[in-house]
Amino acid sequence: MPQAKVELKNVGLRYFGREGETEALKDISFTVAPGEFVAVIGPSGCGKSTLLSLISGLAPPTEGAVLIDGKPVTGPNRKVGYMLQQDYLFEWRTILENTLLGAEIQGAPMAKARERARELLTRYGLGQFLNHLPRQLSGGMRQRVALARTLCTAPDIVLLDEPFSALDSQTRLALAEEITEILRREAKTVILITHDIGEAVSMAERVIVLTRRPGQVKSEHAIRFMSDCGRPTTMAAREAAEFNTYFRTLWQELDIHVED
């Protein structure tokens, strides 16, 4: 059996605030295979984004272990790229300069990074905007820049923390399809955090459902579509007969309609 790309073993996280100790995550265990696209959903406040912080090495777990390629995560890892809800582009830097930010922070060879940044931006339809400032771009274009910045450092694993939540519904659907296609073509291992069940079903190959806080793995669902052309695009997936079945199943798994 091939080694898991990402593995969480009995992971828990507690933190202290003004009201005392809070248990955010409890006994989380799951693996992600190389090249797999996994979505994580759950009620608000269940620790979904916290999970990405642990995988990226931005925070250590209180219990258990997070492993990448079989090695414990002890801090930020160059194999991991992190795309957040907001694009966080620096308004005083050009699009090309923004794309190079991660490479600069990592101390990567800048000539090679600049060449890759130009290639990525051109591939994503932004070649004519290299010297523009972020305020001159639409929301969808800005998110494509954020993706190019994430991929410029050539990570193996891409973490997506609700990357489309700030966009209007039409742009959100179009960009989800575009980014999913890019990440599959690049053969990245992807973990997506989302509140949108339809987004999870149409983009991911597997969906993990978390409980209310403290977040625990409630269930896992393999997402399969009957298609003669392999995995359908996100828009085609939404139109497939299986989509509504998966949607209803996941909706019933969530606790969002239950009052405390």
Folded structure, characterized:
By secondary structure, the protein is α/β, with parallel strands linked by helices. The protein has 9 helices and 10 strands. The chain has helices at about 50-55, 95-100, 100-105, 110-125, 140-150, 170-185, 195-205, 235-240, 240-255; strands at about 5-15, 20-30, 35-40, 65-70, 70, 80-85, 155-160, 190-195, 205-210, 215-220. The strands form 2 sheets. Strands 6-7-8-3-9-10 form a 6-stranded mixed beta sheet, with helices on both faces. A 4-stranded antiparallel beta sheet has the order 2-1-4-5. A hairpin with a 2-residue loop joins strand 4 (about 65-70) and strand 5 (about 70). Helix 4 (about 110-125) packs antiparallel against helix 5 (about 140-150), helix 5 (about 140-150) runs parallel beside helix 6 (about 170-185) and helix 7 (about 195-205) crosses helix 9. The protein starts with 5 loop residues before the first strand and ends in a 7-residue tail after the last helix. The mean pLDDT is about 90.
Provide a concise account of the structure shown:
This protein has 260 residues and is α/β, with parallel strands linked by helices. The chain has helices spanning 48-56, 95-99, 101-106, 110-123, 139-152, 169-185, 197-203, 234-239, 241-253; strands at 6-17, 20-32, 37-41, 63-68, 71-72, 80-83, 157-161, 189-193, 206-210, 217-222.
Describe the secondary-structure layout:
Blueprint: E1 6-17, E2 20-32, E3 37-41, H1 48-56, E4 63-68, E5 71-72, E6 80-83, H2 95-99, H3 101-106, H4 110-123, H5 139-152, E7 157-161, H6 169-185, E8 189-193, H7 197-203, E9 206-210, E10 217-222, H8 234-239, H9 241-253
Parallel strand pairs: 3-8, 3-9, 6-7, 7-8
Antiparallel strand pairs: 1-2, 1-4, 4-5, 9-10
